[in-house]
Design brief:
Length: about 375
């Protein structure tokens, strides 16, 4: 008996769809509709009073719901539109003098972070990209060797988006700190699926979003910054919401808020923050540890089924080295993925990796059997060959 299957009734799409794509877009909880109605009702009935009745504080109060999922404390997280914004805020806190101008990151980091870092070259930053031998993972030893006394920032994905390989955040953070560098971890592919504790790891920055494992929908990216760093960080990407007293409308320059609000900018993305809440509540109710235990069981089962079906697996076989996704490599992966969608089996495809299949806490074992046998027969179908 799988107690987490009791949650299935909370996710309408599961009634007619095999939903194995929560690493891309988590299923919508039924209660999110009520939250979005609450947003509309509040706007309709409270009007401008809504700002002081909660809307203005939503970037921090919503972060408080997310905090236990990543081991942060209340008041330490701010909500932004996406990772691109959150990482741009981090970058805008940093200087790159020649003596400390290196940004060390991995070639398999998510594109948006790499695009942002390369834009910092004109400010003196030198981007060091740790290569991957197999296109799926990065050697931790090679990573550690790339970090030195000239490193300003290490940007590391906790779980790599293409292969779901889990990286050794503890070792990378320890090395970075020993060299006087800061660490920014992208938790998008781990938070809600893999236990993470930003305090225990002593991370300086953590970013992520709510679209995937957190089932929070788009528009709710988050930023954690280690509190003892706050007084020393003055983002260049800023705005009036970061001011100590925004409604005084003081003349420039900005006087930063003492708390995490100093990392805000403009008017918050209010409907997205209503939408994000129910996913966080559900993940908190279940607990990430229980989700992870089920995920390891089901990803192991997927790997076993794929091996029996003769489908190559491009995800680490050691459960301690992988996140929640299993990547299956069939030659016509893009076509197979489209054909699966026509059968209401939702997965996705990434070039250079394969078909990404992701069970979440609401997945039934039979759905894994169904998906793998459909992939096996579609991969062999002459019309898709
Ligand atoms: C690891 C990771 N970071 C970031 C993103 C997305 O960045 P943004 O929130 O800016 O769209 C994704 C996927 O969409 C991702 O997998």
């Amino acid at each position: 008996m799988d107690p987490l299957l009791a949650w299935r009734s909370e996710f309408p799409i599961l009634a007619d769809t095999v939903y194995l794509v929560s690493h891309s877009l988590g299923a919508m909880p039924a209660r999110t509709r009520a939250r979005l109605n609450e947003f509309a009702d509040t706007w309709a009935t409270r009007g401008v009073r809504a700002w002081e009745e909660g809307w203005w504080d939503l970037p921090v109060t919503t972060g408080n719901l997310l905090a236990p999922i990543i081991g942060a404390a209340p008041g330490e997280i701010t909500l932004h539109q996406n990772v691109s914004t959150a990482q741009a805020i981090v970058n805008s806190c940093l200087d790159f003098p020649p003596s400390r101008n290196k940004i060390v990151t991995e070639s398999l980091n998510f594109t948006t972070n790499l695009y942002l870092f390369h834009r910092l070259e004109s400010l003196g930053a030198q981007i060091v990209t740790v290569p991957s031998d197999d296109g799926l993972s990065i050697s931790t030893e090679r990573y550690l060797a790339s970090i030195d006394e000239r490193t300003r920032l290490v940007s590391v994905s906790h779980v790599l988006f293409k292969s779901s390989a889990l990286q050794d955040l503890a070792a990378i953070t320890a090395r970075a700190h020993a060299c006087g560098a800061l660490v920014s971890a992208d938790l998008y592919q781990s938070a809600g699926a893999v236990p993470i504790d930003v305090h225990a790891l002593n991370l300086d920055f953590a970013t992520g979003g709510s679209v995937k494992w957190l089932c929070g929908g788009p528009g709710a990216g988050y930023l954690y910054v280690r509190p003892d760093l706050w007084p020393s960080l003055e983002p260049r990407f800023t705005g009036w919401a970061a001011h100590r007293n925004p409604f005084a409308f003081d003349a420039a320059p900005i006087e930063f808020a003492p708390g995490a609000e100093r990392f805000l900018h403009g008017t918050p993305n209010v409907p997205a923050l209503y939408s994000a809440r129910s996913g966080y509540e559900i993940i908190n109710e279940i607990g990430v540890q229980a989700i992870r235990e089920k995920s390891i069981r089901q990803t192991s089962r997927l790997i076993e089924l794929a091996r029996e079906a003769g489908i190559p697996v491009r995800t680490p076989s050691d459960p301690a080295r992988r996140g929640g996704v299993v990547t299956l490599d069939v030659p016509n992966g893009a076509d197979v993925t489209r054909a699966l969608a026509r059968q209401n089996i939702l997965v996705d495809f990434r070039p250079g990796a394969g078909i990404r299949v992701a069970p979440h806490f609401y997945t039934a074992d039979e759905e894994l059997d169904l998906a793998v046998s459909a992939i096996q027969s579609l991969a062999a179908a002459p019309e898709l060959a």
